[in-house]
Specification:
With about 80 residues, the protein is an all-alpha fold. The chain is built from four helices and no strands.
Length: about 80
């Protein structure tokens, strides 16, 4: 056991029983927070995104997004005068 854990166990052993109840509640809430963080990382949406990014390939074709946008706007609004 590390020194920090030994110190914590020593402090808990010296606490009155009614205060240990509150400490247990506090530890459960802290443990719940860390479990939620681990669950967020394993959400199906996140795993799907990671899979897609893993299989994604870089394209050799350079796309001029501003020119594409201008062309699309011109086509869409060509009939409006």
């Amino acid at each position: 056991m590390t020194v920090l854990k030994e110190k914590a166990v020593d402090m808990i052993s010296r606490m009155p029983e009614e205060k240990v109840y509150y400490l247990v509640q506090l530890l459960e809430s802290v443990e719940g927070l860390s479990a939620n963080t681990a669950m967020d990382a394993e959400m199906p949406e996140r795993r799907a995104l990671e899979d897609l990014q893993r299989f994604r390939k870089r394209s050799d074709v350079e796309i001029d997004y501003k020119a594409e946008l201008a062309k699309a706007r011109e086509e869409k609004y060509a009939g409006i005068n």
